Amino acid sequence: MERLTAEVLGRLTGDIVKQVIGFAPWLRKRGFRAGIPETLTAIAALAELNVDCMEEVCSAFRAIYARTPAEWGIFPNLFEQYFFGREVRLEEKRRLQPDELAGGAGAGERASRPPVDVVQGFLAGYHPDDGERFALRADERVLKDVVQLTRLAVRRMNAPRGRKWRLRGKEKIDLRQTMRCALRRAGEPFVLKMRKRRPDKPRIVLMIDISGSMKPYAPFITSLAWSFTRARARTQIFLFSTRLLRVTSLIARKGVAGIPFSDLPGLRGGTRIGGALEQLLRRYPSLLHRRTCVIIVSDGFDAGHPQRLHSAMRDLASRVGRVVWINPLLGEPGYEPKSTGMSAALPYIDAFVDVHDVATWKKVVTGGALRTAAP
To answer: Are residues 359 and 234 both part of a single domain?
Structure first.
């Protein structure tokens, strides 16, 4: 928390302090978590800023008040609504001129002058509407191709033996089919009909990182997650950033139409991959066994302690049949997985692949990265 001094407050007018004090309650009504520490920091920052340049003030306040990608995206619009609608401009104290003290014409002109129009500057790569409407939405242009490739991948995966039986096996004689065939030949069973167990559906656990660094790939990754709900597989889908959230039914119902950010409670900025894996191991142990294929979609930038990720990956790899890590940055020129998170996870990964569009997903499916779900 910034410490305010008499010198700092002495440079600012009472109107500035009053407006900044009212800004935090105004933001709280719109979903921000702003309080006294942010207010004191903003007032102290004004002492170092050029308050005549509203672009500079907006950028500084954005760094103070915005905590999540969604708040970062909509903050400039809120800043404009609050400060540009006020009659009093942000300005520093100055000495009054003699004509102003006497109530001259110059004072009246200056008092009635409207605020100067200021064009706001936005951070490169961001748009004011980013994160405002949908947190996740599938790309409808690639859905058909992605679903076909996902169904092909599921058919190629090894599946456990199911409870139902089917013909053309070598394990057991199907007496019913053998007798029916013998009736066509006067009761002589010339052909023995065999049967075997029908393969069960493959078991897949899909974990998707939705932190701010993964936002450019969110439409395709959402399409990929939705396609698994349309394939013949036992799929469970989880989202994670600072915590783990199970969204299988939500993706199946709203993946194409769009999932509002309000439907994803508790997911905030930052990534705790190790903590999310620990929650998966602790809360959903029945999903993790030797026939399960775990697919983790993340760029590997972990804000948590690397030892937690190392321990969680070690325990996960010992319990499931296959761990596949999808990193969309792997195809970028010059990228190397040298981050702390990726370095801790790589020893326990069976397949490390790049998937960010239809072409790369097809390459992974045909290459057999998902083929074996158990040793």
So the answer is: yes
